[in-house]
Amino acid sequence: MELKRPAASPMTASATHPVVLAGLAGQDDAGLQRALAGARVWIVIPCYKARAHILRVIAKIPRWVEGVVCVDDACPQNTAGLLEMQKDLDPRVAVLRLTENQGVGGAVLAGYAEAERRGGRILVKVDSDDQMDLGYLSHLVTPILLGEADYTKGNRFTSVGHLGPMPRIRIFGNAMLSFAAKLSTGYWGIFDPTNGFTAIEASVARQIRDKKVARRFFFETDILYHLGTLRAVARDVPIPARYGDEISNLRIRDVVGPFAFKHGRNFLVRIAGQYFFRDFNVATVEMVLGALLLAFGSVYGLHWIALRDPGDVAPAGVVMAAALPVIIGVQLLLQALNFDVMNTPTRAIHPYLRALERMGSD
């Protein structure tokens, strides 16, 4: 891997007050630069076939961002070469070359590691296709700076007005993927899981890098699953959709099957780990009893139907023996689902991780 090191950052190491952060959304760039001095926000841009838009994206990066890591993911267009030839390139930009293509997830994780090595504390992932409005960067980083979240992501579905530019097939597809992601990750308050405009606290990103996160298009959803295993707090941030002349490398027909399989696998592993191995609570009992009763009632009823003579009417006792376990089983499973919805993490873990780091360095 070859690196181009940026010049020293002009940002100072001053502290940031929570009251100031709460009003970031309404400030101009100069005000944000004063408020976010010392926040050490770094942007990670995975680059693959990105020559057409990457310079435009870099030109829009606000002044208060401390640094940028552009990860050339063995790009066939040699995006890294384009950046290195720019004599007037933003001095905050570092170019990281990957010798082999690792997919968007692999490129982002490599960028996280490089940005943290250079001092980044909040790492923002921005795509190279210029679809993301960088005017919303402060909206992404504020919940993390306030200690209210470990991971934030854009959500294009919070307003009907935000959906205007989005193709209708994408709206439907994202809605289906969002429900599947709620089941597989346990983050029932999260929507639009494939949105790649995200921010993560560096100590949490370090924990994620040690896990087997999907390296390709399932990355954004899979990282939510792994954040759930850490009990990290994830939060949506309303951000409108933008579409221009960029061409997506994602083909829906190629990912539907693999996505469905991976969602199902993550759901089963999450339930087993969260309710049977790492904990055993009332939801566990509801799941076990509910599944057993539902299975018994269904099998009993189907067995009687299969063996009955044509024209026989089921006695009341047979109906109750089949229907009552099914009804109770469904109710217990719904109660377990309600428990799972209410069991979403609410306390950020990065202050704890940072405290452990400070104690370890003393």
Outline the secondary-structure elements.
Layout: E1 3-4, H1 18-22, H2 29-35, E2 41-47, H3 54-59, E3 67-73, H4 79-84, E4 93-98, H5 103-117, E5 122-125, H6 137-145, E6 151-155, H7 168-185, E7 198-201, H8 202-209, H9 219-229, E8 234-238, H10 252-277, H11 282-307, H12 316-342, H13 350-361
Parallel strand pairs: 2-3, 2-5, 3-4, 6-8
Antiparallel strand pairs: 1-4, 5-7, 6-7
Helix pairs in contact: 5-8, 7-10, 11-12
Transmembrane segments: 287-307, 313-334
Domain Glycosyltransferase 2-like: 43-208
Keywords: Membrane, Transmembrane, Transmembrane helix
Question: Can you characterise this structure?
Answer:
The protein is α/β, with parallel strands linked by helices and 362 residues long. It folds into 2 domains: 256 residues, Spore Coat Polysaccharide Biosynthesis Protein SpsA, Chain A (Alpha-Beta Complex), CATH 3.90.550; 63 residues. It is 49% helix and 11% strand. The protein is built from 13 helices and 8 strands. Strands 1-4-3-2-5-7-6-8 form an 8-stranded mixed sheet, sandwiched between helices. Helix 5 packs across helix 8, helix 7 packs parallel to helix 10 and helix 11 runs antiparallel to helix 12. The longest helix is centred in the last third of the chain and has 27 residues. The chain starts with a strand and ends with a helix. About 5% of the residues have low confidence. Keywords: Membrane, Transmembrane, Transmembrane helix. This is Glycosyltransferase involved in cell wall biosynthesis. InterPro entries: Glyco_trans_2-like, Glycosyltransferase_2, Nucleotide-diphossugar_trans.
